[in-house]
Design a protein that fits this description.
By secondary structure, this protein is mainly α. The protein has one domain: Helix Hairpins (Orthogonal Bundle), CATH 1.10.287. It is 81% helix and 0% strand. It has 3 helices and no strands. The radius of gyration is 15 Å and the shape is elongated. It starts with a helix and ends with a helix. The mean pLDDT is 92.
Length: 68
């Protein structure tokens, strides 16, 4: 997903997307142990997208905290 698309998602959707990506990453690690990974470059793509989601979530938490 693009950064603009991620920014448009609400917190619940971001959390769900993060969980989905983490599960996919876990499944790919299991496949790599068996030597069955079709697209090894997908590892870095998944990690990058998870990091982007976590960054957006943390930025939102910080901005909500400063308003109080």
């Amino acid at each position: 997903m693009d950064l603009k698309e991620l920014n448009n998602l609400n917190s619940g959707e971001l959390t769900a997307r993060e969980q989905f990506l983490k599960k996919e990453l876990f499944d790919m690690r299991q496949q790599s142990r068996l030597g069955q990974v079709e697209k090894p470059a997908r590892f870095s793509t998944l990690k990058t997208e998870i990091a982007r989601i976590l960054t957006i979530i943390n930025e939102r938490k910080k901005s909500n905290g400063k308003k109080n």
